[in-house]
Amino acid sequence: MPHASAAPFVSIGQILAEKVLPRLHRAQKLPLRVSCLGTISYAGATDADCRDRTIPLGDAASPEDAMALAAIRVARDDIRTGPDDTLHFQPRLIVVQDNALGLVIAGDIRAGVILWQHPVASDREARRIVTEASRIRGLASAASGRGDHGSARNLRYQASRLEARLVDPLLRETTADLLRLPQAA
Known about the structure:
Order of helices and strands: HEEHEEEHHH
Distance between the termini: 55 Å
């Protein structure tokens, strides 16, 4: 009597390609770097005096750890430019990158909460976003040239929010899966 196996035979090559190599690839890009993009200014500063700034928040061993680190820092309003309390920082985006500066995940900050952006689903969608973000950055440049610094900053932020979906192609599926998981509030 032939023995019927419950699981089909999987070749070692398939196991390597689907399980081992992706994990090794991700491990080479650790630790993940968590940072916050925002606007820095002094109290009472005009739009022309405000500057865009990136503040490093720390490193993490996994996307989940990076998201937790970011969520805690944002919820506690614990993002500082340094020991100088005269500077005001308005956080706008959280960015998680691997050590090769590939985007892992990014999120928009609203009312002390991070709204994580879903990655693009295809290269075609990525090209569309790059085109739109470039168009918006052109508008920002024109606004800056006119001296409309507030509008220029808001347009640059809008472009950055779009670009937050441009996750490294090798990590798109992993990031999309991560965002499907229920998150603790």
